[in-house]
Amino acid sequence: MIGEPAALPLLQMALRVEQDIFVIRQRGREVAAVVGLEHQDQVRIATALSEVARDLLRTTGGADVSFHVDSGADGRFHLRADLAPVSPLPDDRYQPQSGAVSRLVDTLSVSTVEGVTVVRMSRRVPANAPAPTPERLAEFRTELGRTAPGSALDELTVQNGQLIGALDEVRSQRDELAVLNEELAETNRGVLALYNQLTEELEETNRGVVALYAELDEKSAQLRAASESKSRFLANVSHELRAPVTAIIGLGRLLTDSASDPLTEEQGRQVDLIRSSATDLLNLVNELLDLAKAESGRIEPELAEVDLRPVFGQLRGTLRAVATRPEVELVVEEPTGPALLRTDEVLLGQVLRNLLHNGLKFTERGEVRLRASQNGDRWQFEVSDTGPGIAPELHDRIFEEFYQIPGATRVGGTGLGLPYARRLVTLLGGTLGLTSAPGEGSTFTVSLPSGGA
């Protein structure tokens, strides 16, 4: 509570007759306006004053009314009105119109101040109102002292105007609320329709996804079955073909043996052609059988420490006979120093042999070169040639089974060497890549981990 302003009231009045109720209401509204309360709060505290004053006039015969400005614990200023009855209140539980009046003010209570019982009510002053300093309060008292209270008829006129304004405001709010309710209902109908539409579309999409997954599962099962059937077919056919082809080669060798009856020159040429064709057919059968084993997962790498130098030496010796063109040189660069790699020596030899053989087939002049280098924890094997090169759009296709590059450079073969080499490299835990362009030759790169798959 501030010192002098709280002790010295802004205004004092007496409630003795019915007409005083209208005066108290009028002056209460004026005091609220002077201290800075908003219009609605002015009407609220004036209405609360008139209701309590009417109750006290009926039960106690009147009261002394005073208005004060206090500073509350919340840091805000409050307009306080005290109504001290001229005779004792009916009982200690007296609560004047507490149910209705208490909603019009911030506080409403019956208190005893310096031995005097008073009915006290208060309303917070807006934070943006001027601070009620002692000088400012003195100005308030002077301003209120200059105004004289109006008649009951004037107050009734003002009160009726306020009531009409409140009714108009309520009516306006009711109309706005009706419009908002209608807009909300329309929005809800739209949201519901959109939700239903989205739900139907989502259910339709889900049904399509389920059907698609079922179809994909069926196709996957069919593909797995087809792949297994193909692998079994290749394995069975290869086994069945190997025996008669081997027999044809053996019989051809017997026909040309010096211990057999001599053949004519034409017969010898025909037998050599049979033996050559049978050898090619046996190579094809062996490749089919190897591919069938790789696809069925029956090849298990046997990892061991492998010295690359003997492997490279063996490749140089076995492939020297394949390099029949004098215009093509086979170069095998043996690694210097210790060249140890944990891998399957047989499978690695097959991969490098296939790549070198592929380069020798397609290179008409220049060289086919094999080199190896260690980069961190991986070994890189490069097989490069000076052949015609491969267009970028065919880099993936050459690893397809039975595919051969079309054109004038096409030579004999099955188209199984590169797919088989890539499968073996994958079994060894590595990768097989290609760098090539038309007219610039090709380089196949095998990357294997040093520690094995």
UniProtKB/TrEMBL annotation:
Enzyme kind, highest EC tier: transferase
GO cellular component labels: plasma membrane
Cell location: Cell membrane
Keyword hit for Cytoplasm: no
InterPro entries named in the record: HATPase_C_sf (IPR036890), HATPase_dom (IPR003594), His_kinase_dom (IPR005467), HisK_dim/P_dom (IPR003661), HisK_dim/P_sf (IPR036097), Sensor_HK_Regulatory (IPR050736), Sig_transdc_His_kin-like_C (IPR004358)
EC number, UniProt record: 2.7.13.3
Domain called Histidine kinase: residue spans: 236-452
Molecular-function annotations in GO: phosphorelay sensor kinase activity
The entry's keywords: Coiled coil, Kinase, Phosphoprotein, Transferase, Two-component regulatory system
Major localization class: membrane
CDD domains reported in the protein's UniProt record: HisKA
Gene3D superfamilies per the UniProt record, alphabetical: 1.10.287.130, Histidine kinase-like ATPase, C-terminal domain
Coiled-coil parts of chain: 163-215
Catalytic activity, reaction form: ATP + protein L-histidine = ADP + protein N-phospho-L-histidine
Name of the protein: histidine kinase
The species this protein was found in: Micromonospora arida
